[in-house]
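hi! just following up on the protien thing from before. the input was this:
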Amino acid sequence: MTCPAYVHHDTVGHAHHGPLSHLHLGTISTAVAPLLHGPPRPARVVATTRHAVHLATGDQELPALAVVTRDAIRLPNALVLPFSSADRPLDLNTPWAGFGAGRVVIGPVRFEPEASWTPPRVQDAFSPPESARIRQVRVLLDALAQPLPPPLAPRMTDLRHALHTDDAGEVRRTARALVGLGPGLTPSGDDILCGALLASRAWGGPLAPLSEAVTDATLRTPLLSAALLRHAARGECVPQAHAFLRALSGDGALEPALRELLAVGHHSGGDLARGVLAVGLSRACAATGDRDDYPVNYPRLKPGLAARVITGDDEARLHPALTR
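and the predicted 3d structure came back as:
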């Protein structure tokens, strides 16, 4: 479909005119639908694949907006299109984008929502997991998931220990140390924290210190990851994470739910599960009054050793971890 010309602006205010060659209708997540209200605003393309285009919005509360095909992972910040990446790949090669006035524009293509969808949201009504289910998931995760990169293992142990001792200051400190650790648009450290935030929202964990640890995530980790951390703090997540939390709470079979979650991204599903499990273990221990047998069995990082944080211009050349 040929559309009329549209004026859009880049992030430094230069106007660009050109014909809009296509219009696609889709469904917009209610979590990011407010971005389409008001006049047109500029956006920046930070990553593209066959399945998704990720935009930096400049909005403090909703910093990223995704346009995805129906076969992509359904991110909570997505406008979902009715066709698959095999039918119409989204590898648009343009830095110019905008949103507002009820639409999203990426290069010569306009996307408009004809309906909305509500992303899954965890609530504090979930039942805390039983110890037996936690043990089952630990065995399955060790057998099925990719191993955690060695530089993150001691940081993960520190977070688990802080959760186990229920020390808010230590939870905040150890969670902050995970922000941005690992390569890619959603580093492993951030995926772990997304899982911990969701589990804390579901089971009454230390949501406040975890949320405080990621308040400046947009300055410390890739934009897409920082946006997903904000959604997780509000309890918004991908459907696979929601189903896994329900299964851990006793509503559904654990192994199928875990396998579905592990299929999310290259490593993201496993890291999300690790974050969920860390909070689940602390909640199970709290329920039984057991605070003395937490295993600390990973070596600490050597002085000066740190995992690389990928930010800024690296985003555009890295494959998004939460798209297929």
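The CA atoms of residues 199 and 276 lie 5 Å apart.
The radius of gyration is 20 Å.
cheers
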